[in-house]
Amino acid sequence: MSHTRTPVVTGWFVGDGDDFRLLGTRCSACRSVFFPREDTHCRNPGCGGGDLTEVPLSRQGRVWSYTDSRYRPPSPYVTDPELPWEPYALIAVELESERIVVLGQAVPGVTVADLAVGMEMEVVPGVLDEDAETTWTTWRWRPTGVA
Amino acid sequence: MAADGGGVMTAEVAVLGAGMHPWGKWGRGFVEYGVKAARAALADAGVDWRDIGSIVGADTVRGGYPGYVAGATFAKALGWQGARVASVYAACASGAQAINTARAQILAGLADVVLVVGADAAPKGFFRPAGGDRPDDPDWLRFRVLGATNPTYFGLYARRRMAEHGDTPEDFARVKVKNAAMGALNPNARYRKRVTAEEVAASAVVADPLRLLDICATSDGGAALVLSSMEFARRHGAAEPVRIRAVSTVTPRYPNTVLDLPDIATDSAVGVEPGGETFRASIARAAYEEAGIGPEDLSLAEVYDLSTALELQWYEDLGLCGGGEAAKLLAEGVTAPGGRVPVNPSGGLASFGEAVPAQAIAQVCEVTWQLRGQAGDRQIPGARVAITANQGLFGHGSAVVAVR
């Protein structure tokens, strides 16, 4: 049976492989960027409010900080209770041109021992979890240049 | 100063009574804890419940959001007597906002004497969001998409301090050792054992670089205060009561460039240059300005040590030292009993665990007892000025200045 690939959140990212990008929105009046996207109102209190248009975020950034989750997170995070818990790293990455820090999981296999603040990372597509019908896709951070 | 969310000195209100139900995992309902704390505060104040003009409850928390009604629940349990009622929710700052609501009523002349109550029975394990699919809720999203529990955010902040300031896990452990030593002296604390640095280092990593003993637990507990106008206090015979001089409940300023719970990203600073002051620092500054004091005036502070590393962060945000100097301040004993400004003489969240709506009220209970000289074995001698500080989800935070 074939699974449908569905983003875990609609409209936050797009594309495959090297074309994969996080999607935010940008205010046409004050140029502020929003991720997660704002589609109705610019949140800059000094802005009269412009049109919010979708904009892909930079693919690469630098580690602002990182940690990991040594214990199984509670629902609505989806895990298989039959399987032993495998910790994963969480990385906060600063995107230089957007001046924003975006949190994400590391790609599988990258642990906190592989990371350092300031290290260059790139965003890549990933699979969060699967159920009977659906493969839920997400974004992941990966050290730049690591295949 | 006027548009500052603070900045104008306000009149004082009196703290007539303080009371708590001990923190723990008692397995009973929050109403019982709140009523016990309320009765203790009323007895401490020497005020009959039937003479209370207003009751303000800090909402219990279920899944990051208000759980059960609070003010009316406590009023009913204490026995309906017709008081004005309010309930407030501000995540971890709920208790401080309840205090501020009571203060506002007193200063506006709506009530002479007000009872403030917060209590909760915490679930086991990680705090988690409410059930159902709610993709428009940032708290639900961070769990669904990232599995990002509260301790992972604390881990991010701790690692950032290590990279930025050279803090070490040993520095973090020193916070726990200090706070556990004070908690051991506090009959209301849940954990009443001293802890060694070796025990911290031997506890399991929860969210790298933080270990189990770096992170505060979730607890049951209840805390209450009886607040009144200064005129009521005088008539009541309280000649020199502890006074609340400031309550800061400011919100962040755009762009907020620190990744705060439960957000997945910061604000972008590309459209507006950041002001250079973090949200936490602005909470403290607003309290100082409203009270007309500065950090140099403090006898002690109660801060929200959700993790050991966050206590160090508060030293800097309260202006006890410059940026990056907190670990040194701690190592020099400045924030320990006998130091210039002891921090968390109650034992802090390290010794209590967090009972969300009660916690910011408990901080004010502790400074009340300290300022009165009634803190027993953990008394800070000659305490005259105290600050409490706290931060919670969704842009909530608080600081209270109390004096005697």
3D architecture notes:
The complex is a heterodimer of chains A (147) and B (404). By secondary structure, chain A is mainly β. Helices cover 0% and strands 44% of the residues of chain A. Chain A folds into 2 domains: 50 residues; 89 residues, no CATH class. Chain A contains no helices and 10 strands. In chain A, strands 6-7-8-10-9 form a 5-stranded mixed beta barrel. In chain A, strands 2, 3, 4 and 5 form a 4-stranded antiparallel β-sheet that branches. In chain A, a hairpin with a 6-residue loop joins strand 2 and strand 3. Chain B has 2 domains: 137 residues, Peroxisomal Thiolase, Chain A, domain 1; 234 residues, 3-Layer(aba) Sandwich (Peroxisomal Thiolase, Chain A, domain 1). Chain B is α+β, with helices and mostly antiparallel strands and 404 residues long. The longest helix of chain B has 17 residues. In chain B, a hairpin with a 5-residue loop joins strand 12 and strand 13. The N terminus of chain B is likely disordered. Chain B starts with 12 loop residues before the first strand and ends with a strand. Chain B contains 13 helices and 13 strands. Chain B is globular, with a radius of gyration of 20 Å.
Summary tags:
heterodimer; A: mainly beta; 5-stranded mixed beta barrel; 4-stranded antiparallel beta sheet; 10 strands; B: 404 residues; alpha+beta; Peroxisomal Thiolase, Chain A, domain 1; 2 domains; globular; disordered N terminus
Write the layout of secondary structure elements.
The complex is a heterodimer of chains A (147) and B (404).
Chain A: E1 4-7, E2 13-14, E3 21-27, E4 33-34, E5 52-56, E6 60-68, E7 89-95, E8 100-106, E9 120-130, E10 134-143
Parallel strand pairs in A: 1-10, 8-10
Antiparallel strand pairs in A: 2-3, 3-4, 3-5, 6-7, 6-9, 7-8, 9-10
Chain B: E1 13-24, H1 30-45, E2 54-58, E3 61-62, E4 65-66, H2 71-78, E5 84-88, H3 94-107, E6 113-120, H4 138-146, H5 150-165, H6 169-183, H7 197-202, E7 205-207, E8 210-211, E9 220-228, H8 230-235, E10 242-248, H9 279-291, E11 300-303, H10 308-317, H11 326-331, H12 348-352, H13 356-372, E12 385-391, E13 397-403
Parallel strand pairs in B: 2-5, 2-6, 11-12
Antiparallel strand pairs in B: 1-9, 1-10, 3-4, 6-9, 7-8, 10-13, 12-13
